[in-house]
Specification:
The complex is a heterodimer of chains A (610) and B (358).
Chain A (H helix, E strand, L loop, with lengths): L43 H8 L1 H9 L2 E2 L6 H21 L8 E3 L11 E3 H11 L4 H28 L8 H23 L4 H15 L5 H9 L8 H31 L13 E6 H26 L5 H4 L18 H9 L5 E4 L2 E4 H29 L15 H20 L2 H8 L3 H40 L1 E8 L5 E6 L3 H8 L7 H4 L14 H15 L8 H9 L2 H6 L1 H9 L13 H13 L2
Antiparallel strand pairs in A: 1-4, 2-3, 5-6, 7-8
Chain B lengths: L2 H4 L24 H4 L1 H31 L5 E4 L3 E4 H27 L6 E4 L7 H17 L6 H13 L2 H10 L19 E3 L16 E6 L4 H8 L1 H11 L1 E5 L8 H6 L4 E5 L11 E3 L4 E3 L6 E3 L5 E4 L8 E2 L1 E3 L5 E3 L18 H4 L4
Antiparallel strand pairs in B: 1-2, 4-5, 5-6, 6-7, 7-12, 8-9, 9-10, 10-11, 13-14
Helix pairs in contact in B: 3-4, 8-9
The chains are: A mainly alpha (610), B alpha+beta (358).
Enzyme class (chain A): translocase
Catalytic activity (chain A): a quinol + 2 Fe(III)-[cytochrome c](out) = a quinone + 2 Fe(II)-[cytochrome c](out) + 2 H(+)(out)
Protein name (chain A): Cytochrome bc1 complex cytochrome b subunit
């Protein structure tokens, strides 16, 4: 097997058995690296003497960023935020954040003569009178949705690959705060047009705030400037939406990116990649072109979607009227989980204590749930580090299968989130599926508790199976689908061994053990329990929960042993296979039939898989 | 970094025997690296992308000035659409995607694709730096005499702790009036006629047939008139809490004596504001006499004093006591006898908000 058989990603077109390049002839055409380097541009001199710009350029231009498709998710969020800032500025030139009552006299005929707030009327004007205004509104709304989708997927990528581990815990916390603020920013934004749908959202928000124990009524009156609806909430949401929250978002975003620069980006493990380096492309020119180009791709796709797919047609809903509501009122998708929780929480959770009212049926699903979800996310890295006792720096990511319990916890949490989100459309599900809304609600109430348990076990088992599959692949090579028949009439499938680069992807990860196996004794030499034993006991059992089932990576010795059994030589030379076949060993074409290597493999897995 | 930080608390002790990292794999040239024609083709593709972008930008401007903003048309798969809007969006997308795809294609086909490695350095400072910072801090602490002058420390701490209050308190306190009795009252009162919203017609008890449903507001608070007489703010507050749903039921199916007593021959009036988070309880199912809130699906049974039979609300909808005036029109006999709308902390103890007025 020649070493050139391995091909780096992206070169698949050149791979295969074609008449190509294995010999790597001197390139017929090479990028023009032979010409002399340019001199330091003199124009920069005076600037540099006053700003020290050149040092920063040297640092920035040579910076290396690793390549992986999943790293683009955060970029989608970042660019969508920029698009929101650009289009949002455009909208502020025409939007009037006022609840003052006027009679509409614009070009949208169905609403002519209807009384409405100036906020709603100016939103109609942006949609119908300002040329290109509708496109800007659509861009703004779609970009906001892409922002939050990108952010959520980015967070999932960071979580499932363990990128939040030391030294990035703080950046994870910043990201979590960004996610919460992005949701609030989105809610504030879609509440501004003061149409019937968004007004209903504000009405619900008013109800949430009222449910806060002790301070709820006061808080609501202060935020709304009196009784609902008042005339203060839209101007206040406006200034929060265009100034306060964006300022905090951009500030935290800068901190987020600065920490990425300080830490250097994480990378997936691979040949040549270690915890001590970062392998990828320098900013100048490759990364600048790719990342800069990707901004335009994201913007372009957003523009295309905004051109062709209608979102939030406020003129259809009509102006807000507190005595009206439309069936099928749903918030934007990122508020679904909270609205869904409100639909699932049963009314009996409201109780009266000393004649004071505690509306847990509302409070739990709104004012408590929203921060709670993000607090749990924020503290997760610290909990995991404590449970696993891992205080090392990590710059190499983990494949999700190599952290089965974390992956299972994450997906179990996502399943709870999805149940809540689904509950938001329980009325639409009931209509579309011709089911009773009561049944759907009861099923979802049950699923909220049952589904995560099922998902946890299924996902954990899947991860372990995938790890076993990796072992299998390292030990016995890749299935080629080529069936060979020996002169004796036996059949077997040729397995192709992995080369060292491919193998490295499957064997580089560590196999941690529970703390109990490495920690000190629970009692000291005199048999007295150590003071920290209680916390230690909890920690050990959690650590056991986290690490007890694991499939260790293949070691060179195991691989040598597998080879020793002779299967692989057999594959290369059918004659040898026949010989082994005569020894009654190692070769089997019957599915499920034991082959010595396989048997051993199962045992290795079973040792730790209790 | 000290070795302690680097010591894994959990490593697999059994596998010191591990594969070595094979190092960076040999570079494989792309087609454009070895084939002059392929590289020229790639360059041409990049140029085409950038050119399309420029054309898109120009087309946007043309569309902006040439197309009638009212122009409508049908696009297959989408339906009727404003063509001006669609043209602006599509040309803008072309302008942006041309640049984006061109740059990415350029980077992937022609720019170097050999990965390079850069070393990482732990963010933590060296021991020397740490010692220097410790020295700076303690020196600063001592040279500013903070270690001896506790009075300065205490007074400075107090000053810094308080200076923000003059800034924060007026803002916070000025945000809104504190809640008083508003939540316990609506505009309903004894003798006010029930008016159909939005027509503003009074309702004669005899005209309410069995099974009919009316959306009702108090006399003087209906439609434009309310906005003109009371101002928009008060009119909107009225809409949000005075709204009532009026239904005539067969008196024999009404399960509650109080419900019958507060109505007129089976005509009953209930607050339409959901006791969950305040949406209008807008869906009335005539067969089952259930009221459903479209926001979170709280379901109220009209035959049983609007008690909650499903969903997240806890309390029944408050009933408005009604009677008939001399001319046979339905009028309120009183305000609601409990607060309407969502629950709030002081709901059962008005004294907490209203003091002695309660």
């Amino acid at each position: 097997m020649s070493t050139t058989r391995h091909v780096p990603q992206g070169a698949d077109g050149v791979r295969t058995d074609g008449p190509v390049v294995d010999e790597a002839p001197p390139p017929a055409y090479s990028p023009d690296q032979a010409s002399r380097d340019a001199k330091f541009p003199g124009v920069l001199g005076p600037v540099d003497e006053r700003t020290g710009l050149v040092k920063a350029m040297r640092f920035g231009l040579g910076k290396v960023f690793p390549d992986h498709w999943s790293f683009l998710l955060g970029e989608i969020a970042m660019y969508s935020m920029v698009i929101c800032l650009i289009t949002g500025t455009f909208l502020t030139f025409w939007f009037v954040p006022s609840m003052g009552h006027i009679t509409y006299d614009g070009s949208y005929v169905p609403l002519k003569g209807v009384g409405m707030s100036e906020a709603y009327a100016s939103t109609l004007d942006i949609s119908f009178e300002v040329k290109g205004g509708l496109l800007m509104r659509q861009l703004h709304h779609w970009a906001a949705l892409f922002f939050i989708v990108g952010l959520a997927l980015h967070a999932a990528r960071v979580f499932f690959t363990g990128a939040f581990r030391k030294p990035r815990e703080l950046n994870w916390v910043i990201g979590v705060v960004l996610a919460l603020l992005a949701i609030i920013e989105g809610f504030a934004g879609y509440s501004l047009p003061d149409d019937l749908l968004s007004g209903t959202g504000i009405r619900a928000m008013n109800g949430f705030m009222m449910s806060a124990p002790v301070i709820g009524t006061w808080m609501t009156f202060f935020i709304f400037g009196g009784e609902f609806p008042g005339e203060a909430i839209i101007p206040r949401l406006f200034i929060a939406h265009v100034l306060l929250l964006p300022a905090i978002l951009v500030g935290l975003f800068v901190a987020h990116i600065s920490l990425v620069v300080i830490h250097k980006h994480t990378q997936f493990p691979g040949p040549g990649r270690t915890d001590g380096n970062v392998v990828g492309f320098p900013v100048m020119p490759v990364y600048a072109a790719k990342a800069g180009g990707f901004f335009f791709v994201v913007f372009g796709v957003t523009a295309l979607v905004s051109a062709l797919v209608q979102i939030n047609p406020v003129w259809v809903f009509g102006p807000y009227d507190p005595s009206q509501v439309t069936a099928g009122s749903q918030p934007d998708f990122y508020m679904w989980f909270s609205d869904g929780a409100l639909r699932l929480l049963p009314g009996f959770l409201e109780f009266t204590l000393f004649d004071t009212v505690w509306s847990m049926n509302i409070f739990l699903g709104s004012l408590l749930l929203l921060p709670l979800v993000f607090i749990i996310m924020g503290v997760y890295p610290f909990i995991e580090a404590w449970v696993t006792g891992d205080r090392r720096e990590h710059h190499l990511l983990q494949r999700p299968r190599n952290a089965p319990v974390r992956t299972a916890i994450g997906l179990a949490a996502i399943s709870m989130y999805l149940v809540l989100s689904l509950a938001t459309i329980n009325d639409i599900l009931a209509i579309k599926l011709q089911l009773s809304i009561n049944d759907i609600t009861i099923i979802l109430r049950t699923a909220f508790f049952v589904l995560p348990v099922i998902v946890f076990f299924v996902v954990k088992r899947l991860c372990l199976s995938l790890q076993r599959h990796d072992r299998e692949k390292v030990l016995h090579g890749r299935e080629t689908g080529r069936i060979v028949r020996t002169p004796e009439g036996r059949f077997f499938e040729v397995h192709e061994p992995l080369d060292e680069y491919e193998r490295w992807h499957l064997v580089n990860h560590e196999t941690p053990t529970p703390l109990a196996l490495t920690d000190g004794a629970e009692r000291d030499v005199h048999g007295v329990r150590r003071p920290a034993a209680l916390a230690g006991g909890l920690r050990r059992s959690l650590s056991n929960f986290f690490y007890k089932d694991s499939i260790p990576a293949v070691t060179p010795a195991e691989l040598a042993a597998a080879h020793h059994h002779g299967e692989h030589e057999a594959l290369d030379t059918p004659g040898a296979a026949a010989a082994i076949g005569q020894h009654g060993e190692a070769v089997s074409d019957i599915p499920g039939a034991p082959v010595s290597g396989h048997v051993e493999d199962e045992n290795v897995g079973a040792v730790r898989d209790s | 970094m000290s070795t302690h930080d680097n010591t894994p608390a959990v490593v697999d002790q059994t596998t010191h025997d591990r594969f070595p990292n094979p190092g960076m794999p040999p570079h494989r040239p792309r087609r454009a690296d070895v084939d002059e024609r392929a590289s020229r083709r790639a360059a041409l593709q990049v140029v085409i992308f950038f050119t399309l972008s420029a054309l898109g930008s120009i087309a946007f401007l043309v569309a902006y000035y040439v197309i009638d903003p009212e122009l409508k048309g049908t696009i297959i798969g989408i339906g009727e659409i404003n063509l001006f809007h669609a043209a602006l969006g599509v040309t803008m997308a072309m302008s942006l995607l041309g640049i984006g795809l061109g740059a990415v294609h350029w980077a992937k086909t022609l720019m170097p694709d050999e990965e390079v490695a850069e070393d990482r350095h732990p963010p933590a400072a060296s021991d020397e730096d740490k010692a220097a910072v410790a020295q700076q801090l303690s020196h600063g602490w001592r040279s500013s005499q903070l270690n001896r002058r506790t009075a300065i420390l205490g007074s400075a701490g107090g000053a810094l702790g308080l200076f923000a209050l003059p800034l924060i308190v007026p803002v916070a306190a000025g945000l809104g009036p504190r809640p008083r009795g508003e939540l316990y009252r609506t505009h309903w009162q004894d003798g006010l006629r029930l008016m159909i919203d939005p027509s503003g017609a009074p309702i004669r008890a005899a005209d309410v047939t069995q099974g009919s449903v009316f959306h009702v507001m108090p006399e003087g608070w209906v439609g434009h008139q309310a906005f003109e007489e009371h101002g928009a703010e008060e009119a909107m507050i009225s809409k949000s809490k005075d709204q009532v749903i009026l239904v005539r039921l067969d008196p024999s199916i009404i399960k509650s004596q109080k419900q019958r007593d507060w109505g007129v021959d089976g005509i009953v009036a209930y607050s339409k504001v959901c006791t969950h988070v305040g949406c209008p309880v807008a869906l009335y199912e005539q067969n089952t006499h259930h009221l459903l809130c479209p926001c979170h699906q709280s379901t109220f049974d009209m035959t049983d004093d609007c008690k909650v039979i499903f969903g997240p609300a806890k309390r029944p909808l408050p009933q408005l006591p009604i009677t008939v005036d001399d001319e046979g029109y339905l009028v309120a006999a009183d305000d609601f006898r409990e607060p309407v709308g969502p629950s709030f902390f002081e709901r059962e103890r008005p004294g907490l908000l209203m003091g002695d007025d309660a």
